[in-house]
């Protein structure tokens, strides 16, 4: 029998992720300051402050996120990136983590990527002529197709369908 004891840092990490997901945030920013650390969520292109943590608690929080994403918890001088999946309110959520060294310490940005149901290709909001062109391009053996757009799930859904 394996006994799993949930630490206070795990509880805090889950609360931060859950709060951001329930508010439909796109990002969580963990930004070190001289005396403390500010945790913000991005809503409609605005950073909204949510919580302030002491330095040592924040360092443990960032280390927890890095550990769960298989990042090097000892490396704080170079940028790193990783990804994990978690469940929030019964729905699968992808998290992309990026660290960046700063003057004060290390900052962390977590991009929230809700995993939605697959939408059939023909139901995507493309014009019929563009859909036919895209389908024809997908049949080529060579080439590169670049999708661009705002940071939201529509681009991701389109890529998943292709």
CATH architecture title of the largest domain: 2-Layer Sandwich
| Helical run tally | 4
Task: Write down the CATH topology of the largest domain.
Answer: Beta-Lactamase
The major pleated sheet works out as: 6 strands, antiparallel
Give the helix proportion (percent range).
25-40%
CATH class of the largest domain: Alpha Beta
User: How much is the radius of gyration in Å?
Assistant: 19 Å
Distance between the termini: 44 Å
Overall outline: elongated
User: How many strand elements?
Assistant: 6
Alpha-beta classification: alpha+beta
Order of helices and strands: HEEEHEEEHH
Q: Could you outline the blueprint of secondary structure elements for this entry?
A:
Layout lengths: L7 H15 L4 E6 L3 E8 L2 E9 H14 L11 E9 L2 E11 L4 E9 L13 H11 L14 H9 L1
Antiparallel strand pairs: 1-2, 1-6, 2-3, 4-5, 5-6
Helix pairs in contact: 1-2
């Amino acid at each position: 029998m394996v006994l799993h004891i949930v630490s206070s840092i795990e509880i805090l990490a889950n609360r931060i992720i859950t709060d951001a997901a329930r508010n439909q945030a796109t990002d969580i920013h963990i930004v070190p300051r001289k005396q403390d650390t500010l945790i913000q969520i991005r809503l409609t292109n605005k950073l909204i402050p949510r919580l302030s943590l002491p330095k040592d608690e924040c360092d443990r929080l960032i280390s927890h996120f890095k550990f769960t994403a298989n990042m090097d918890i000892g490396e704080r001088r170079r940028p790193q990136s990783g990804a994990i999946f978690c469940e929030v309110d019964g729905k699968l959520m992808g998290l992309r983590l990026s660290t960046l060294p700063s003057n004060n310490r290390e900052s962390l940005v977590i991009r929230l990527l809700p995993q939605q149901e697959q939408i059939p290709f023909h139901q995507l909001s493309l014009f019929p002529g563009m859909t036919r062109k895209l389908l024809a391009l997908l049949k080529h053996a060579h080439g590169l197709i670049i999708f661009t757009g705002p940071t939201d799930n529509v681009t991701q859904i389109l890529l998943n369908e292709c």
